[in-house]
Design goal:
The protein has one domain (about 5-290): Aldolase class I (TIM Barrel, Alpha-Beta Barrel). The longest helix is centred in the first third of the chain and has 14 residues, at about 25-40. It starts with 5 loop residues before the first strand and ends in a 6-residue tail after the last helix. It is built from nine helices and twelve strands. The chain is α/β, with parallel strands linked by helices. Helix 1 packs parallel to helix 2 and helix 1 (about 25-40) packs parallel to helix 8.
Length: about 290
């Protein structure tokens, strides 16, 4: 079986009120990169954060963590485009454009949601939405513009799919030859009131895998927003999928609020139970069709 790629979603927009280990600063992100690679990770996904944890979107806010990651690891880098915290269309990829010709700063992967999502959290206990106006909008016009630029710059999109229509739009982008094979799909599951993604169940995962493009070479990974990924992690690993996990998505009180490296070690243990080896960053680049770093 193909080796397992472990991507780590190290911080997202998580604060430290639950899990105190969430990294924010470039130095913290650099140390995190070293630790998660030693544990078995091959990709790091990060959000640029200010020292107080607030979202940050200046060029140096992105550049400093990337330099720190490069200095401490050989991980593939997947920076955020900013989701709803960064306005405009092409403005959302301005940092990618700025870094594309810099050997150190150029990312290998950029997350792209091929669809629009309601990302408000529903409070089941009180039967109300915590917010009711958070919509992550990605029109096909925007997706085409982004993928055209990524293709020209030699950067692979990670196609984050929250539901089946996302998969269908992603397949259309591949048919338009805007996304090269193998496609890298991230199947987003949602728990803890995050209703935008599939539930983290066998049925939720199977709906995704049943609708992968049949005529295209693809790799896929699973993540879970606001919930525990482990209920479907072993199934995904056994089926040949990959894992994208991190304390940015969920604090993991079940594991006593662990570090990201702890989560990676737990995934490595699961992989061993089904006889699957873990990919190094160099091997993960080969699996995803990404050129080695010189």
């Amino acid at each position: 079986m193909k080796k397992l790629i472990i991507e780590v979603r190290i911080n997202e927009y998580a604060m430290r009120d639950e899990n105190p280990h969430v990294p924010w600063t470039p130095d913290e992100i650099g140390r995190e990169a070293r630790e998660i690679q030693e544990a078995g990770a091959s990709i790091v996904h990060f959000h640029a954060r200010a020292a107080d944890g607030s979202p940050a979107h200046g060029l140096e806010d992105y550049a400093a963590p990337i330099r720190a990651i490069r200095a401490n690891s050989d991980l593939m880098i997947n920076p955020t485009l900013g989701q709803i915290t960064k306005g405009g269309k092409l403005e959302r990829i301005s940092h990618i454009e700025a870094f594309a010709h810099d050997h150190i700063l150029k990312p290998e992967i950029v997350g792209l949601d091929p669809g629009s999502t309601n990302i408000d959290i529903f409070d089941q206990q009180n039967r109300r939405f915590v917010t009711d106006g958070k919509v992550y909008v990605n029109a096909h016009e925007t997706l085409i513009a982004f993928t055209e630029r990524f293709r020209a710059l030699g950067i692979k999109p990670a196609l984050a799919c929250w539901s089946i229509p996302f998969l269908r739009s992603a397949a259309a982008l591949m048919d338009m030859e805007l996304v090269a094979e193998p496609g890298y799909f991230l199947f987003v599951h949602g728990e803890g009131g995050q209703l935008g993604g599939h539930p983290a169940t066998a049925e939720g995962l199977r709906a995704y895998t049943d609708h992968l493009p049949k005529n295209r070479q693809s790799e896929w990974a699973v993540c879970c927003k606001s919930g525990n990924l482990f209920p479907i992690a072993l199934s995904a690993i056994a089926q040949g999928g990959h894992i994208a996990i991190g304390i940015g998505d969920y604090a993991y009180p079940e594991l006593d609020y662990p570090t990201n490296a702890h989560l990676v070690r737990e995934i490595v243990k699961l992989a061993k139970t089904v006889g699957r080896e873990v990919a190094t960053p160099a091997e993960a680049r080969g699996i995803l069709g990404i050129r080695p770093r010189s």
